[in-house]
Design brief:
It contains no helices and 11 strands. The chain is mainly β. Strands 2, 4, 5, 6, 9, 10 and 11 form a 7-stranded mixed β-sheet that branches.
Length: about 120
């Protein structure tokens, strides 16, 4: 089993910054992808940013403001969020895709709340 522990959420004013961290531990076989998703009240969960061997991918609305990075030694992924907007408010979930032989297994963190006030 793989465990994901997130930190760094909170309340910030519009235009401010936050940095999210997610540390993976447990029986990790081979990390294929790590990243962040978010879910706003009444909305579906959406991809914010992911990083894999093929590079990074961002939701269109966060390009130029958010930066995802990964420490492969610590099995930790970070999300630097700058120029935050009220529409960035939501629960942010860490995501890990583990390569187990020929299978890919999804893991999710418990979520961390990000609230951006106007």
């Amino acid at each position: 089993q793989v465990h994901l522990v997130e930190s760094g959420g909170g309340l910030v004013q519009a235009g401010g910054s936050l940095r999210l961290s997610c540390a993976a531990s447990g029986r990790i076989n081979g990390i294929n992808t790590m990243g962040w998703f978010r879910q706003a009240p009444g909305k579906k969960r959406e991809m914010v940013a992911i990083v894999s061997g093929r590079g990074t991918n961002y939701h269109e609305s966060v390009k130029g403001r958010f930066t995802i990075s990964r420490d492969t030694v610590k099995d930790t992924v970070y999300l630097q969020m700058n120029s935050l907007k009220p529409e960035d408010t939501g629960v942010y979930y860490c995501y890990l895709l583990d390569q187990v032989a020929v299978r890919l297994v999804n893991y999710w963190g418990q979520g961390t709340q990000v609230t951006v006030s106007s």
